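User: I want to check something. If I give you two sequences, will you return the structure for each one separately, not as a complex?

Assistant: Yes, each is folded on its own. Here is the first sequence with its structure:
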Amino acid sequence: MTRKASVVIEKDEHGFYAWCPELKGCQSQGRTLEEILANIKEAIELYLESLPVDERDVLLSREVLTTAVEVNA
C-alpha cells in the first residue's frame, strides 16, 4: 500500500535536514536535495515498519498543512 507523509526540508550550511511531522523523531540529513529526499523516504519506511498497522493508520491520517506568511522584519 502506498501512503503519503508530510516532509519538511530545511537547508543550512551543511546541506539539507528533513523531518516528518506525523512521525515524531523521524528525521534525516543529506548533502543534496536528491539525497535528502531518498534518505527521508528510507527513514519513514523504516520507522513505519516498526509500528503496528493500526498505529500507522492513525499517524498517517493526520493532516499537516504548511503555508508562508509575510512578516515585517
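And separately, the second sequence with its own structure:
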Amino acid sequence: MAYIKRHDGRKMEDFRPVEAKVGVVKRADGSAMFKIGDTVALATVYGPRELHPRFLQNPERGVLRVSYNMMPFSGQGDRVRPGPNRRAKEIAMVTEKALFPVLNLENYPNAVVDVMIELPQTDAGSRCAGICAASMALADAGITMKDMVPAVSVGRVGKQILVDLDYYEEAYDEETVADIPVALIPSTDEFTLLQMDGDVTREQLKEALEMGKFACKKIYDIQKQALKDKFAGDLK
C-alpha cells in the first residue's frame, strides 16, 4: 500500500514536537535535554580538563571525546544490550565529527572535553537528537564555538520524501525506506553529518537535503531559545 499520508497526521516537511532545555544536570559543566517526539536525549559536558594519560594530549588543540549510550529498555524495537557495542561506538564517532568543525579546540591545548549522551527513551532519530543535545550542552559549558549544530533525519518512504522519520516509518514494510541523518552548520549551510541507510535517486537526495536544511534551521531556533531561556533565568 502506497505511503501517501503520514500516520501521525504530520505534513511531509514537518518534524515531531520538540522540547529543549539546558542546565538540566547541576554537577556537569554543561548539560542539555533534547526531545523530539518520543525520543529523548540527555547530554552532559565535563571539561575542558587536563587529559590523562599525558601521551594522549595534543599541545596544539584540545581533544573532543564523545560517548553514546541507549538504555536497555529505551527503544521501540528489541531490548538494547547494555554496555559498549559497535553501533554506540559508530554513533559516538559520527557525533564527534559532526560537532568538531564548530569547536575552537585550539583554545584548550593538552585538554579534553568529554561529552556523554544518554538516551532513556527512543522512537527513531536518536543520533540526531544526541547531536542537538550535545551541541546545546557544549554551549552551556561555555566551550568557545563558531556555531551550534542542529540535526534531523530525512528520508524516503516509497516515493514520498519526508522529514524526521519515526519508528513506524523506519520499519514500514509495505514500501522501501531510506533514512538519511543530517547535521548542519546554520551560519555556513555546511553539512557536518550525512549518512544514508537505503537507496534514493540523485533528485530525491537533493530534495531530502533541502528539506533537511530547512528543518535544521527551525530546530536551531529552538536550540537558541533554550539557551536564552536558561541564561535569562540566571540573570533574574
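Because they were folded independently, the notes below concern the second chain alone. The CA atoms of residues 155 and 161 lie 6 Å apart. Strands lie at 18-22, 30-36, 39-50, 63-70, 111-121, 151-157, 160-163, 177-185, 190-194.
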